[in-house]
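Supplementary Text 2. Reproducibility record for the structural model of the 286-residue chain.

All settings were left at their defaults, and a single model was retained for analysis rather than an ensemble. We include the record here because the model underlies the residue-level annotations in Supplementary Table 4.
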Amino acid sequence: MSTGSSPVPSHYDPETVAAPHPCLSVVIPCYNERATISTVVGQVLASPWTAEVIIVDDGSTDGTRDVLAEMADPRVRVHLQPYNQGKGAALRRGFGEAGADYVIVQDADLEYDPAEYGALVQPLVDDLADVVYGSRFISSRPHRVLYYWHSVGNRFLTTLSNMFTNLNLTDMETCYKAFRREVIQSVVIEEDRFGFEPEVTAKVARADWRVYEMGISYNGRTYAEGKKIGWRDGVRAVYCILKFSRTGERVRTALGDAPPGRPRLEETPSVSGNGVHDGLAARSQN
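Retained model, structure tokens:
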């Protein structure tokens, strides 16, 4: 699916990926994921598509920061938020630090498989898409069976988002969103929590970027295993769909409430690949 007019070449095969090469900035928002973060980062680094890993720890208090401080791979950069601000705030920081050609969001749990980066990045490498969503609902790959009402809520939010953006997505709330770097860095992220998903979807649609979907596997976790999103985030998602859609933007502009400028990166502590704390200026050295 695409919002642009570029035709899909007759030879295009989603199962045949381009030759792997390091071209991805993998942004990992992280909050209290001590049990899984090492495994996730190991899987991400094992992908031949990974150029750099940008971890933004969002005020963890469970020992996650101790684990991150021990990571020695030079491709890994860790940025520490001074306090818990939310997934959207962490991604805002991470996107600003990205330097590779393409950027992908990776959760710090084990729900999404970095081995699937190749299929997700191919439409970008082939210049068919500017943004690629990994859909959990159009794939024949393994899916853990969990909460029925979560799936109902997800489909409702995706349908509502589609109505206001005129896209035809099947999974707006997916974690796996890959972008051309210049695309995501041109988007002003205003939402600090899980409202990031409908916000970025609305803004991508409003800018008429070319959007593709690829089927992915999904190993969802339970609340006992650390799942954090709740019903309040669903309510906020509805608000964000209305606020950031084309129609909502026209109303805001008419009322004189223009979107704010891109927020300045906070000078919060960073950790380089060798585990040494350094300042924001270290970005230019990595």
